[in-house]
Design a protein that fits this description.
The chain has 20 helices and 16 strands. With 622 residues, it is α/β, with parallel strands linked by helices. Helix 5 packs antiparallel against helix 6 and helix 15 crosses helix 16.
């Protein structure tokens, strides 16, 4: 279906652009991964850009859904307009990209989108932005992205963004003309990147991050004109004798994409700050932070795929550290100075109390400690580049052998992430209000590096997302079985009977049966007044949900939990699983264990610490 052009930059244009940009990055992802040689040749720039944009798309779609279905389930949202304002859509785009930003390139893309959003949302009463506003947005985006990088380097995505803003600034006309000028300026700047950065010229490629930005700007052109620009190659044409190693410094910006030797995005060690025994791991000590770094490093060589024929810089830092940070501006200024002394590739983006921090360091623990001193870091990801591998050996290592079978699970808290990991599962951490995208699940499947994968979404709302991830993984030759677990306690039951030595089908059937035989419940606080199966609840009420439906409304957490547990055990059971969130009362576990021991003979109870998991308490009954 042909794209209907947008005349102005309104909320619908934001939505359309994000969707088209995600599609464009999806098409170009493998090619961008394959030309990724700077700042680290880890072959994941395209994947990181895709995941960052996917998070932005999810946030924008959530805003539109919230306006289409308003409070209490009534259509139209506030005011009955059925469509968010441009400011709401732009802010959602920026926030989604910020919380989902991956890698150096994704972090910079998030800041570019945030810079544009700050201009687009400057006047909340305006129904749309015209060409003049779009020119200002490009300029502010490029400048803010450059300020976010500790030591800007020419020949990177920053150069491409600046060129786009320069070209847009000299163009008159509406949004379509401005977008096309920005795209053409970016494309010319991309072609010039090998002449600005020696590592690109040696590899015969353009900058991978800049290539991704050109794809995003091409989607903006399509948004306003209905026509997609031609493809842009990432590799430079060879000149002279074959095998001479010399490349022409100019890129022909027309014609088909060329990607010799596409490298699949590699597995990386994403480390949640969790205690492997199931308890919350405090991040206020150096030993805790260094334990995370040690865990990340344990993956060993082969877990990071890269472009096999790409040269790599020697002697770079061993770890990439990324985290979200809740902190004040002055604390972030101090953090920047400290991290700048620890490593390189420092990018800190965000504002208004929420930041995304990215840095390459040798001491990952020190980078996390710096975040703890500045505020509250979370969603911590520590990637080990592979000592003696990416930075020193290039692509000479033998490929890592795949294991036969693995389990990939979405988990709602750091404590459960540790529990699942201890049981051998590869985890995807879901923070409250931040469900993982399908790309994150696919990345975890790749990280598991197995021929067969059992996928546990552990959330009814994630079933379709998990199905999309399973389909993509199957297209890559991985055998995937999706077990539709609706709660982490069902996933625990499935994982308890998992036996990798069995035939795949038998193992899946056994795990599915165990999950299906586990009733699940949660105790949480109501965020707003709403209608439920148990009546009307008010904001702050304690809700007890059994199998996804509100069954209890109360004012006391422990009393509500006891009522829920009694109702579940009235139908029988042999084992009760309790997963405590950080905000649960200290005495609730002892109280419920005593209740089971005294009132239900022959029923055992097991208790886990879930950490920051959203719900106060998860309950499973098998």
């Amino acid at each position: 279906m042909a794209q209907v052009p947008q005349t102005f930059f309104d909320a619908l244009a934001v939505r359309t652009w994000c969707g088209l940009a995600l599609t464009a990055l999806g098409r170009a992802r493998e090619e961008i991964d394959a030309i990724n040689v700077y700042p680290v040749a880890d072959g994941d720039t395209g994947t990181n850009l895709y995941l960052t944009m996917e998070s932005a798309v999810a946030a924008v779609e959530a805003v539109f859904e919230g306006h289409e279905v308003g409070p209490g389930g009534h259509p139209g949202g506030s005011g009955g307009a059925g469509k968010p304002s441009p400011a709401d859509a732009a802010r959602a785009m920026a926030h989604g990209a910020l919380i989902g930003a991956r890698g150096n390139s994704g972090t910079i893309l998030a800041q570019l989108l945030r810079g544009m959003a700050q201009v687009l949302a400057a006047d909340s009463d305006t129904a749309h932005t015209d060409g003049t506003g779009l020119r200002l947005a490009f300029r502010h985006a490029a400048d803010s992205a450059r300020r976010a990088v500790a030591h800007p380097v020419e020949g990177t995505v920053l150069s491409v963004a600046s060129a786009a803003a320069d070209a847009a600034g000299t163009t008159d006309g509406g949004c379509g003309a401005v977008a096309r000028a920005a795209y053409e300026g970016a494309r010319e700047a991309l072609a010039a990147t090998p002449g600005q950065l020696a590592v690109l010229e040696r590899a015969g490629v353009v900058d991978a991050g800049g290539r991704g930005l050109v794809a995003v700007l091409g989607a903006l052109v399509e948004t306003f004109t209905g026509e997609a620009p031609g493809a842009v190659p990432g590799r430079l044409p060879r000149v002279g004798h074959e095998g001479s190693g010399t490349f022409h410094a100019r890129v022909d910006t027309g014609g088909a994409e060329t990607a010799d030797g596409v490298a699949a995005p590699g597995g990386v060690a994403s480390v949640a700050s969790g205690d492997p025994r199931g308890g919350s791991l405090p991040l206020d000590s150096g030993s805790a932070a260094r334990a995370d770094a040690h865990a990340a490093g344990a993956v060993g060589p082969g877990d990071v795929d890269e472009c096999a024929d790409s040269p790599v810089e020697q002697g770079g830092p061993a770890f990439e550290v990324i985290y979200l940070l809740e902190a004040e501006d002055d604390a972030v200024d101090r953090l920047r100075m400290r991290l700048d002394g620890l490593g390189d590739s420092l990018v800190v983006v965000g504002g208004d109390g929420l930041w995304n921090v990215h840095v390459h360091v040798d001491d990952a623990g020190a980078a996390v400690e710096a975040g703890v001193e500045a505020g509250r870091p979370y969603r911590i990801r520590i990637t080990h580049f592979g000592l003696g591998d990416v930075h020193t050996r290039g692509g000479e290592r033998p490929p890592r052998e795949r294991v036969q079978r693995a389990v990939v699970a979405v988990v709602p808290g750091e404590g459960l992430a540790g529990l699942y990991s201890e049981a051998g599962a590869t985890t995807v951490l879901a923070r409250p209000g931040e469900p993982p995208a399908s790309g994150e699940m696919v990345e975890a499947v790749r990280r598991a590096h197995a021929r067969e994968v059992v996928l546990l979404p552990n959330d009814a709302d994630l079933r379709h997302t998990a199905a999309a991830a399973a389909e993509q993984a199957r297209a890559e030759g991985i055998r995937v079985a999706l077990i539709p677990t609706r709660s982490a306690v069902q996933g625990i039951a499935a994982l308890a009977v998992h036996e990798p030595e069995r035939r795949f089908d038998e193992d899946v059937v056994s795990m599915t049966s165990a999950a299906g035989a586990t009733r699940y419940a949660e105790v949480a606080l109501a965020e707003r007044q709403s209608w439920t199966m148990a009546g009307i609840c008010q904001a702050g009420d304690v809700l007890g949900l059994i199998d996804g439906d509100v069954s209890v409304i109360g004012s006391d957490v422990t009393a509500a939990a006891e009522t829920v547990l009694d109702r579940m055990l009235s139908a029988g059971g042999e084992l009760v699983t309790l997963v405590l969130g950080d905000e649960a009362p200290e005495s609730i576990a002892d109280h419920l264990e005593a209740r089971v021991r005294e009132g239900y003979l022959g029923v055992d109870t097991v208790v886990y610490r879930g950490g920051r998991q959203g719900a106060l308490l998860l309950i499973g009954v098998e």
